[in-house]
Amino acid sequence: MSTESSSTYDFLFKVVLLGDSGVGKSNLLSRYTRKEFNLDSKSTIGVEFATRTINVDGRIVKAQIWDTAGQERYRAITSAYYRGAVGALLVYDITKQGSYRNVQRWLKELRDHVDSNIVISLIGNKSDLKHLRAVSTDEAQWFSTENGLSFVETSALDASNVENAFQNILTDIHHIVFRSTEPISDTINPGRGETIQVSQSQEPTKTGGCC
Amino acid sequence: MSDDSGRPSTHLDVRPDSPAASSFVSHATSRANSQFASADPANPNTKGNGRTSLEAHRARELRWISAMSSTPEAQARKSKKIRKLVIEGVPASVRYLVWAHLADAKGRRIPGVYTQLGKRARIAIAEEIERDARDCFPDHPHLREEKGALVTMLQAYMTMVPDVEYQTSLVIIAGHLLLQSPEEDAFWTFLAIMDTHLRSYFSPRTVQMEVDASIFSKAVEAVDASLAKRLFVDLDLSAVKICRPWFSSLFSNILPSDFVNRIWDVFLYDGPPFLFRVGLAILSCCRTRLLDASSNPALIYALLAFPPTSLLPEDPEALITLALSMKFKDDDVRRQRVKLEAQLKRQTQQTNPRSAFSAISLPRS
Q: Which Gene Ontology cellular-component terms appear in the entry (chain A) (predicted)?
């Protein structure tokens, strides 16, 4: 359990990481929150959390990220974790067809347990293993568009797109919250909450401005 | 350091329940149709529907996560802040962590030991454990498996603590833990709960259940004299026979599981006196039935071993509130337990001076 110290924040978002065992959820989280990667990390048992505070459109957002166990035998326990999540990163391994096929199942599992407004992002992890690729980018992109998910390929190992993946989903969530709170708030500039991008794919950019 | 309620958390500088902490909550308050709407923070137990309760759920999760990181396990049961959180409620998503925290399971955990214990030879009682696992959890196939987590966990425990006498309620408690918790975590929490609270119920050397039953019958008399007279004088019921199924299983398989979870939440903080309180609350719920002239001892034992849900409050919180409102001094139980135990110990030692309380084989780090 790791908790990052932060003095204050405007929004707190609960985001869950899910997907098959071994696709790299815990490494995505440690790369994002601690800039660490561990090649022989053990499988997650139950649940672990980490937080990171970032700036989204001038507001301080604290992301509370729940890393869940991908193993089947923990399924009964892990379903409790989805409740109240406003975002989900559904992760598969681009070198494992099986983990991509199971995305359907995870999606169903998620939708059975959460509010329909949840922002879901599909993450194809291990993009550094190009020579072993078993799932094409186009196919996953198409699937994401069909299902109203945003999509990005990442590598927790070489850190590519990890920042973007989290930044994008937090921005998307922020836009929704912003829209729902904007009319009653006099402290927020109302002009900035117009764009809502939930289901559109996010092309990875190299900006990644956070903290 | 016994009360950290006044100290600001070192890990989370803003109190999650502070209005300043989250405009996320405050901005959304009046938007009841939004997923992000807020709950009434003054009323954490309100079972609001839909979005309101979601926000309360998230806020509660956050409070627990920050409380667990700021209060060490060994201090948890001394912290008034934690007690307050326990009473407010424990989200299912963090429940096994909260239980492990309150039981101080981490303090007992030794890496690798659980795996090693699993490799030990099958014990004589294993067959009985397997049979009980099949009988007690008909709705949970994964708990009934012959080489499944429940059987493995109890076999491991029984090889480790030879002074514990096997009873079916051990399977019931272990199974209930496994419904919430990954296997190895469940094992250490089980061990911690046994060590801290329950082991004396299962030791052939102690008479803890007799002691507690005697304290319980006195408590019934103090709370409801006419009911006590009816149960323990007119019908001459045995308090041990009433208390044993309740206390030794922590009410698992006796009450519906949402009640059991809440009882465990509070029990793991308050300790055994809370079991007495729940017992008193159950008697109070069943009072009319118990006083009914047509009831006989067999019927009453059966009724109390499985109190019908129609007699219980609909909401588990109502039972918790009732239990906590019972006129009953927790410290008296603690004192009486010590006194009665010492008395009984003297008696046993006089009759059999060699029955010393031998050392216990727990590998402590």
A: Golgi membrane
Q: Do B30 and A64 touch (CB under 8 A)?
A: no
- Whether B76 contacts B107, CB under 8 Å: no
Q: Are A85 and A114 in contact (CB under 8 A)?
A: yes
User: Is A185's Cβ below 8 Å from some Cβ in B?
Assistant: yes
Check CB contact of B145 with chain A, cutoff 8 Å. Answer: no
Residue B12 DSSP code: -
The whole-chain average pLDDT of chain A stands at: 83
Please give the angle made by the CA atoms of B236, B241 and B246, to the nearest 5 degrees: 135
Residue type, A25: K
Q: Model confidence at B267, in pLDDT bands (50, 70, 90)?
A: very high
pTM over 0.90: no
| Predicted pLDDT at B240 | 95
Domain count, chain B: 2
Work out the minimum CA distance from A45 to partner chain B, whole angstroms: 7
Task: Give the separation between CA B179 and CA B92, rounded to whole angstroms.
Answer: 11
Average pLDDT on B261-274 reads 97
Does residue B196 lie within any of the structural domains? Answer: yes
Q: Where in the sequence is the domain holding A81, given as residue range(s)?
A: 11-181
The string of pLDDT tens digits covering residues A13-31 is: 999 999 999 999 999 999 9
Residues of chain B found within 8 Å of residue A177, distances taken between Cβ atoms: 24, 27-28, 36
Check CB contact of B23 with chain A, cutoff 8 Å: yes
Q: Specify the amino acid at residue B188.
A: W
Q: What is the DSSP string of B214-281?
A: HHHHHHHHHH-HHHHIIIIIIS---HHHHHHHHHTTTTTTTS-HHHHHHHHHHHHHH-THHHHHHHHH
- Kindly determine whether residue B68 and residue A1, on different chains, have CB atoms separated by under 8 Å: yes
CB of A43 less than 8 A from some CB of B: no
CATH number at residue A97: 3.40.50.300
| A11 contacts on B by Cβ (under 8 Å) | 22-24
Distance CA B281, CA B292 (A): 18
What average pLDDT score do residues B325-350 get? 83
State residue B83's pLDDT score: 97
Per-residue pLDDT, averaged over A158-187, amounts to: 81
Q: Minimal Cα distance from A62: which residue of B?
A: B22
Indicate if B232 and B322 belong to the same structural domain.
yes
Query: Where residue B243 sits, what CATH number does that domain have?
Result: 1.10.472.80
∠A29-A35-A39 over CA atoms, to 5°?
Answer: 70
Q: Quick check: is B359 in a domain?
A: no
**Which CA distances in Å does A62 have to A7, B71, B174, B260?**
10, 21, 37, 34
The answer to whether position B138 is within a domain reads: yes
Is B342 found in the same domain as B221? yes
